[in-house]
Amino acid sequence: MAEVVAYNEKINPVIQNMNRVIIGKEEVIILSLVALLAKGHVLLEDVPGVGKTMLVRTLAKSLDCDFKRIQFTPDLLPSDVTGISIYNPKEMEFEFRGGPIFGNIILADEINRTSPKTQSALLEAMEEQSVSVDGRTITLNQPFFVMATQNPIEYEGTYPLPEAQLDRFILKLKMGYPTFVEEIDLLEKTSLHHPIETIQAVMSQAELTTLQAEVDEVYVDRSLHTYIVNIVNGTREHPSTYLGVSPRGSIALMKAAKAHAFIHDRDYVLPDDVKYLAPFVLGHRIIITSEAKFNGETSEKIMETILQATHIPVRREFD
């Protein structure tokens, strides 16, 4: 019998609402909400057609948020993302018209299909929560959440994100194919109409902002701070890594662990939260040496080795 997971009563309606549309991907749903509640952003890498876009649309609709989609192409300009100033002859002055970045939940579709200059325009907005246009700094709407999708980088015609830009994403996720039974269920549910057409918002933007503030108050024991830093130091000292995780990664792991604890109806973080999230938060921040890559080493294997070797705090250490 499958274990029944108890979720926070405030966030559970969102999870159940999304489960109606995204079949068999509750883990991805939970991790997306972890990033959102931690005020981070997600990089979703997978092959076309597995539901990446639908995931973001369902999240936005469930939260009554303004959804914007940016389809990244090789000819996309930074101003196509941030907006542009247009001269108004009647008022005899320039007026700023915001681009699609001025939404609440942004789908940056196939971000690795556009030039690094345009990628940087989006990633700057993610980091600073604002955009600079014609010498003015304009604050973005809140809540603000970006889920960027990309096809695997071995496909032709892509511009892989540099390590410094990958570091801006709190989590990197994969959807994966549905199971045999899940795919049959998917066909049955979409035979007449798509489930996303019938779902309604179950949380307001104001309620979401309140929950983000509550996540900030989740308690993290000092022993868990030590645990996080030990894991991060493991990425820096591992013989297969050319460059380990930065302090930004340590902070990201702590914030994600707080959100994960909150979703599971706790006001304190456990070592299990940190250990579970570490591969999703830290894996894409590691640079592997060329020799290690040649020998078949991957960030997943490195993280598994580090987590096995790192001492886990026991309950008495929390007292």
Quickly describe the structure.
With 319 residues, this protein is α/β, with parallel strands linked by helices. It has 13 helices and eleven strands. It is 43% helix and 15% strand.
What does this structure look like?
With 319 residues, the protein is an alpha/beta fold. The protein has two domains: 12-75 and 103-129 and 141-210, Rossmann fold, CATH 3.40.50; 217-318, Magnesium chelatase subunit I, C-Terminal domain (Helicase, Ruva Protein, domain 3), CATH 1.10.8.80. It is 43% helix and 15% strand. It has helices spanning 12-19, 26-37, 52-62, 78-82, 116-128, 163-166, 180-189, 205-216, 222-237, 247-263, 271-282, 290-294, 299-309, and strands at 42-45, 67-71, 83-88, 93-98, 105-109, 130-133, 136-139, 145-150, 171-173, 241-243, 287-288. Helix 9 packs parallel to helix 11 and helix 10 (247-263) crosses helix 11 (271-282). It starts with 11 loop residues before the first helix and ends in a 10-residue tail after the last helix.
